[in-house]
Write a structure and sequence with these properties.
The complex is a heterodimer. Chain A folds into 2 domains: 2-55; 106-275 and 306-332, MetI-like fold, CATH 1.10.3720. In chain A, 75% of the residues lie in helices and 0% in strands. Chain A is built from 16 helices and no strands. Chain A is flat and about 110 Å long. Chain B is mainly α. Classes of the chains: A mainly alpha, B mainly alpha. At the A-B interface, helix 2, helix 4, helix 5, helix 6 and helix 8 of A face helix 1, helix 3, helix 4, helix 5 and helix 6 of B.
Chain lengths: 337, 312
Amino acid sequence: MKIKNFIMQIVNRVKSIKDRIKKYFDKPRTKLVWKRNISNFLMKLLRTVLLFGLCFVILFPIIQQISMALRAPEDTNNPAVIWVPENWSLMNLKISIIVLDFWKALLNTFKISAISMILQITSTALAGYVFSRLRFRGSNILFAMVMITIITPPQALSLAQYLYFRDISLIGKESSIYLMSGLGMGIRSGIFIYIFRQFFRGLPKELEESAQLDGASVFRTFWNIMLPNARGALVTVGLFAFVWQWNDAYYVAIFDVSTEAFPLLTMQLVNVAENVYTALFYTGGIDLIGQNVWENPLFLVLISNVSALLMMLPLLIMYLFVQKQFVESIERTGIVG
Amino acid sequence: MSSTANKTIQIKKSKALKGYKREKMIWAVIFLLPWAIGFLLFFLIPFLRSLYYSFYTLEPTPDGIITTWNGIGNYLYALNQHVSGNTSFRVELVNTSLDAIINIPVLLIFSLFIAVMLNMKFKGRAIVRAIFFIPVILNSAAVTSALGGGEAIAAILEEQGVSQIFDLEFYLLQMGAMPWLVTFIVGLIDRIYVILSMAGVPILLFLASIQSVPKHLYEAAKIEGATGYESFWLITLPNVSPHIVTVTVYALVDTFLTSSVSTLISDELGKPNRWGESAAMAWIYVSIIILILLVLAVFAKAFKIGGSHYEN
């Protein structure tokens, strides 16, 4: 009897637990919560796998380059060295810095990129604002012109532009780049105007109307209300303008901006293979490495890889600081509630 | 009495409105001035000159450039006769246009998807975002030429019979992986890498536009019990749609700008007596892009993509 009772008790217990579980799952709320939890988990899994995989694809060549950069020049084509350098050394970096004239070129590139970024932002933000908020009769036709500037390849214009700048003797001077940027004809300025236009158009009309009712002038509406709300566009355009100017090897080459007195990273990088030996002989850097190393053709490839890495590195470091702006951007929009 | 007062108020209002409109007009002119000057000097004049060149044969001589009328000869040459290596302008043009049409939808969906993911909160987001920015930097002519080894390096390498220092395929095979698996992995990585390198800028554009969506919309949706899926389709997508157009235009132009068509035009420009042909090629290129854009614009109108929904 006792045993029977005991079994009954256990069965009852199990039943009650089962009922409780059933009750718990029958509640519509729990159903929703579970559904949400599962879908959240799946999303997380998918996101992690996908982003991790893509990051690997992006990083793979870079890691190769870094591992190449840090090996000793003697090991350039040592078949035993694949990933981890056998002899760690900063020699390649040192040589690249000499060949690129790195610090001087870095400073110049930074200067030209920063100034042209500011000029580009100013000219394109103003134009973008006109095409979105200050439209007048015929502004659509002008915007069609902007579209044409976007799609015309720079090669089609470069010859005539070169002749133009030669006439006003701006060839070989950095101011030619500033002039183009400041007048809204810099590198892909058309796209920037387009980006600004789309962003300003996306802002609610009430913002402008309430400012107008409060008696703000057109310029104040633009400066104090619209511009702060278009911070996402400002950061994006600023970033692209900076990076594209930094990486530009086309306009800089046409206008002959990069000279010996004013070296720029891109042009130094393009010419790195040709410059390696002269630079090394010139600066005595040739003593740093043995003859059997610098006669190796792969050494040239190595140096130009390391140089490319050196050119990208400052941009990446800067981006790590800027990307916070992307997060914070529009969290304080004017109209809330 | 009241009616006249109303009228005066109305008149005052309309006067104020007119004044505001005039102010707007004045500022529009001031704001547009830098762009307009630049457009006239650095775009329109070279543009028209290049159009003029495209109908002429140019011959640079010590006394200047001699131009002779050639009609549409340059255009016919570009389309029918041009040959460079084992390709021609026409072949490359068709290939690039097809590539653009096939790649752009894939690119749009892919980059929007990635941007939405990068916008979520998770550990290490800053680092992942920085990594996705790398293709934007890498996508530069200078870096590509350095990495691919400039012409000097390519010549030396060919002489030595060395193809690449680092070769994923080679190492994987050495590690004992199966050959078909290796080809599959290498092919996949290559293709993904191509899309990724094109997607860098679109991802950033989408990221910026997603972040400009007012946060209270999402909060309201969450209170109403919308799932993440629903709030994507009903909030994110409509708010991002104006930027889809921007990204499409960018992707289209970028595809053409980095294509071999663009290189061919540059090459032709490098030959001194071929400036006319080069100009004609550039004009064909421009008109093809305009054509594709017009088709896309018709599509966008038909599906109502791109208009700002605040305006309606």
